[in-house]
Amino acid sequence: MRIDVLTIFPDYLAPLDLSLVGKARRSGLLDLAVHDLRDWTADRHRTVDDTPFGGGAGMVMRPDVWGEALDAVLADDDAGQPAVLLVPGPGGEVLTQRTAEELAGARRLVIACGRYEGIDARVAEHYATRPGVEVREISIGDYVLNGGEVAALVVIEAVARLLPGVVGNPESLVEESHGAAGLLEYPVYTKPPEWRGHAVPEVLTSGHHGKVARWRRDRALERTAARRPDLLARLAPDALDPADRRV
Ligand SMILES: Nc1cc(-c2ccc3ccn(Cc4ccccn4)c3c2)[nH]n1
Q: Would you say 115 and 108 are in contact if contact means Cβ atoms under 8 Å apart?
């Protein structure tokens, strides 16, 4: 997969050199480039924003600069792969594990990180008509950030870990939160068996795999019912067996 990120704060994406994503880049599993939007400005002040039509506070990012940058990045592709143009924003579709799975199936992601009050709306409008480009406005949650870079980091991590070969043990992708039947994760423990007077639940040291599996499912159900009843409501009817009703 190829990911291009456009931003006026390239250093904000420095964490993408670290850990799992950094390893995927170095091993060639992920081709990721971060571009400074100001490289496509034409004035000596490298201006990327201007005052909003209709008045109001703040500034809006100019469509002409974004157009030059996106045309250049999208054209830089020898195989003419279709691209998903992600535009982070508080009004976008909220990122879920399902979204991450969809995006992990794309050949190319281009992430346009806005700042100020956002990017001129005509940019998303224009590229939505571009053959081979699908535009998706993405929110990472119902809170307001100052720009798209943090959202880009979240999307890239959530997607990169789903790419084949990136995570050492693919099994760990199966039993993950919002994964195992859409439930929250169960509590996890490691050595020592007792720590500051807190013991590890006995069942986990019993060696009885069936009981461990049941205990984990019960805890996941309890947590989901307590913290995210909305996820329970979304479960397929057959996802819960009769024994689950007793939790
Ligand atoms: N889940 C999210 C994503 C964002 C986000 C993403 C990109 C930009 C570019 C500018 N802003 C500031 C801003 C604030 C208010 C209304 C419009 N834009 C962004 C905020 N906030 N919350």
A: no
In this predicted complex, what is the ipTM? 0.98
Inter-axis angle of helices 121-128 and 63-75, nearest 10: 30
pLDDT of residue 226: 97
**Ligand 1 atom nearest 114 alpha carbon:** 9
Amino acid at 240: L
pLDDT (0 to 100) of residue 235: 81
| Residue ranges of domains in the chain | 2-160, 180-239
Here the tokens at position 13 are 């994406």
CATH class of 2-160: alpha beta
CB 217 within 8 A of CB 246: no
Q: What is the C-alpha to C-alpha distance for residues 71 and 73, in angstroms, rounded to an integer?
A: 6
Residue 63 near ligand 1, beta carbon < 6 Å: no
E runs forming strands in the chain: 2-7, 31-36, 49-50, 60-61, 83-94, 108-112, 133-139, 194-195, 198-199
Q: Which residue, by CA, sits nearest to atom 5 of ligand 1? A: 89
Is CATH 1.10.1270.20 correct for 180-239?
A: yes
User: Is there an atom of ligand 1 within 6 Å of 182 CB?
Assistant: no
Q: Is the CB of 52 under 6 A from ligand 1?
A: no
Q: How much is the pTM?
A: 0.93
> pLDDT (tens digit, 9 = 90+) per residue, 199-213?
999 999 999 999 999
**Residue where the block lists tokens 């939007």:** 37
5 close to 35: Cβ distance less than 8 angstroms: yes
- The verdict on the CB of residue 12 being under 6 Å from ligand 1 is no
